[in-house]
Amino acid sequence: MQVAEAMEQKPRWAEMCASILKQCEMVRGGRENLAAYLGVHPSQVALWIGGKSGPPRSVFEKAMEIILAEHDRRAALEQAGPTPRRRQND
């Protein structure tokens, strides 16, 4: 496990995770919702989003699940075609 722990302290790893977690925060509807999904305290998410350190591998994997699910959702919407637009009332 030392390799995984060492990775969490690498600046590039922390920056990459921060970017991914910011996206996850938007997808999940806020930091508290994301923290609940990840099973951690919101202050821990704030630390990771700040790029001070990266999350444990298990948290990173859950975050990637969010990203992949959102990707799949958007791909399905694209395949379904454009949605009819509502007319604006004057």
Tally of discrete structural domains = 1
SSE ordering: HHHHH
Report, as a whole number of angstroms, the end-to-end distance.
63 Å
CATH topology group: 434 Repressor (Amino-terminal Domain)
Q: Which whole number gives the mean pLDDT?
A: 87
Give the strand content. under 5%
Q: Any chance you could write out the topology, listing elements then pairs?
A:
Elements: H1 2-8, H2 11-28, H3 31-38, H4 42-49, H5 57-80
Helix pairs in contact: 2-3, 2-5, 3-4
Descriptive overview:
The chain has 90 residues and is mainly alpha-helical. The chain has a single domain, classed as 434 Repressor (Amino-terminal Domain). It contains five helices and no strands. It has helices at residues 2-8, 11-28, 31-38, 42-49, 57-80. Helix 2 (11-28) crosses helix 3 (31-38) and helix 3 packs across helix 4. The protein is elongated, with a radius of gyration of 17 Å.
Protein traits:
mainly alpha, 434 Repressor (Amino-terminal Domain), 90 residues, 72% helix
